[in-house]
Amino acid sequence: MASMEATPCETVSQQTISLSVPDAVAPKNWSTEVLFWHLQDTDTFEKAKHDLEMGLGRLLADVPILLGKLARGPKDHPLDIVIKINEGASVAFPHEDAANVPDIPPMGELLSNGLPLMDALRKAVTPATSLEPVVEGSAVFCTKLTRLKDGAALAVGFSHVLTDGITASMMERIWAMHTLHVSRGLPFRKYKLETPDEEIRARLSTPARCDTEADLDSFLEVVSATEARSHLHKDVASAKEAANRTRAIMMGHLAELGEKPEARGFALWKFTPEKLIALKKAASGHDAEDWISTLDALTALFWSRVACALGENVHNHQKSRCIFMISTRQRLQPSVPNEYIGNVFSPAVAACSISTLITHEVGLKAAAQSMRKASKEWTQSRWEAWLSKIISLPADQALSVDRKTFLQKHDFSFNDYSRFQSNDIDWGTHLGRVARTRYLKRALPAGAFGAHVHPRLPDGSLEVSLVCSDELRRRLQKDPVFMRYAELMCFHT
After folding, report:
1. What confidence tens digit (pLDDT) does each residue in 111-138 have?
2. SS3 call for 91
3. What pLDDT is attached to residue 272?
4. Helices 42-62, 165-183: inter-axial angle, 10-degree rounding
5. CATH code, domain with 318
6. Do the domain assignments include residue 242?
7. 466 vs 301: CA distance, rounded Å
8. Boundary (domain end) residue, out of 177, 197, 217
9. What's the total number of domains in the chain?
10. DSSP three-state, residue 420
11. Which residues contact 458 (CB under 8 A, 6 or more apart)?
């Protein structure tokens, strides 16, 4: 595998950027998307590689924070995290030729089979940086270009400490615009709109009302700082030790429930625009106040039909929860612009009785209304209570999502990337628009199942990847309610 160091096309000064409290408590992991193109020949790939390299240099000049490394701030407190950009900083841009790997079919065949991320393909396209824990000194951005037989794959990874989904989508879009201009021989110009990021970070770190006794969401708990997913460890060894301790606790809890790890993979389902319209209609009530969005209807379908496939008596649960994320940029007052670089989201939980979820036809509507209710119940005062609690804790404690939240088999998690423009962006003369996008996710061998929606396809269709066992996949394929709307594209472990 070859690699080059991408440097900004303009001089970037040495600087230190203080992050917000929401950034500091974000999970210390990577979010990595892979873009796939169907290319005709090697010559096209080489030209595309040149365009991407030059476009990356322009991106780094446009958004210098991507050159930075994570560090502790001067207060030496878990919430005091900074990004340091050194003079002459660069970003590694590795590229690998996997066109002749026997276990990776040609791009046309991959696409016709639903583009499953089987082991050989996943290994070829994954940036090595994204496999390491996020610790002090870690980069905040990584990438890798892979040549495939009749195609190419570009992995784009962002540290969750710096970006939420909206920020990551914006960065990807800016890189594409620079690459497009390089391919057309156009001069460099900046695309990142100016925003008062320092001022916004300070505001997101200072609650208007500092009520540390306010009620918090039930899925939150106070834990030792070093055991929290949000803790920035000093090195890889300490991060892996903490992960092993957490894993042992989780496996112990699963053993108490009598649940054994199982082989899980990803089932990819497609929903056409016509099916989405029908699903939205089925999930909505007759009254205007019972209106349901397409994404709430889609979430409700997976949540209710997975619950139905599992049955009513798993560990005697009475209720099921669906955990999802809400972007609060436009909900906060004053609002936060989409061009701001940072984390601006809140977790939300919808709840519904299992007996209702698994009731034919009723379950879909009930799940959709529960989703809508949970989203509407978000308030700025609740967010400020969360922020106040975090700030008030001593340095050796942290607020974290209850570890058991994702271990209940009848619970569900859902992530929505459908509004991202990944499938519509033009990457220039030699690349054009992507053929498909995929996310490098991991499937936990037990506990709650989960799904994530891929960016909307040009024809309006949506692809949804569901973490599930092969047995659950078979049950869903036999479910007439689920298959009324969904089409299975592929299943891979």
Report:
1. 999 999 999 999 999 999 999 999 999 9
2. strand
3. 99
4. 120
5. 3.30.559.10
6. no
7. 12
8. 197
9. 2
10. coil
11. 423, 424, 433
Asked if the structure places residue 238 within a domain, the reply is: no
Could you tell me the pTM of the whole model?
0.95
Range of the domain at 483: 260-385+402-424+439-492
What are the tokens at 145? 């270009």
160 is catalytic: yes
H helices present in 67-146, as ranges: 107-112, 119-125
In this structure, the answer to whether residues 174 and 266 fall within a common structural domain is: no
- Single out the residue in 197, 213, 247 at which a domain terminates: 197
- List, as one string, the DSSP characters of 286-319: SSGGG---HHHHHHHHHHHHHHHHH-S-GGG--E
436-487, pLDDT tens digit by residue?
999 998 877 788 899 999 999 999 999 999 999 999 999 999 999 999 999 9
Query: In terms of Cα–Cα distance, which of 110, 33, 409, 470 is closest to 265?
Result: 470
Q: Report the alpha-carbon distance of residue 492 to residue 265 in Å, rounded.
A: 5
Contacts of 383 (CB under 8 A, 6+ apart): 328, 332, 346
Give backbone dihedrals phi and psi of 166, rounded to 5 degrees, phi first.
-65, -40
The helix/strand/coil state of 188 is coil
Q: Is residue 36 part of a domain?
A: yes
Q: Residue 402: which of 189, 186, 195, 249 has the closest Cα? A: 249
Is 211 within the bounds of a domain?
A: no
Q: What is the side-by-side strand order in the sheet with 15-18?
A: 15-18, 81-85, 69-72
C-alpha gyration radius of the chain: 23
Q: What angle do CA 327, 331, 336 make, to 5 degrees?
A: 75
Q: Residues 38, 50, 77, 160: which is the catalytic one?
A: 160
E strand or H helix at 84:
strand 81-85
